[in-house]
Design brief:
YaeB-like fold; alpha+beta; 36% helix; globular; 4-stranded antiparallel beta sheet
Length: 89
C-alpha cells in the first residue's frame, strides 16, 4: 500500500484534547501553534519510508527526533505523539 505523505500533511488536524496529551507525553509546555509547527516539521522532514499504516492509523517515526506521531487514517487527526524507547530504535 502506497502512503500519500503529501495528503497526510495537507489534511492533518487536531482536537482540543490532543494538545494537552502531546505536552504531557513529551513533557513540554508548548502552545497550540508550537505543537502544530512541531508536527508539521516532523511530517515534512520524515522520509516516506518511515510512514506506515497499521489498521486505521498511520505511524510516522522520526528516529532523528526520537518521536513517533500517530494519525487516524480516515480523519487525519493526530491521535498522539510518543518518544521512542531504546528497543524501538
Amino acid at each position: 500500500m502506497v502512503i500519500d505523505k503529501k495528503k497526510i500533511i495537507t489534511n492533518i488536524c487536531y482536537t482540543e484534547l490532543v494538545y494537552g496529551r502531546i505536552n504531557k507525553k513529551l513533557k513540554v509546555h508548548y502552545s497550540k501553534n508550537e505543537i502544530e509547527e512541531l508536527i508539521f516539521n516532523l511530517l515534512k522532514n520524515t522520509s516516506e519510508i518511515d510512514y506506515s499504516r497499521v489498521g486505521k492509523n498511520y505511524y510516522i517515526t522520526n528516529i532523528a527526533k526520537n518521536i513517533r506521531v500517530t494519525v487516524n487514517s480516515n480523519t487525519y487527526r493526530v491521535i498522539t505523539v510518543d518518544r521512542l524507547k531504546e528497543e524501538t530504535l
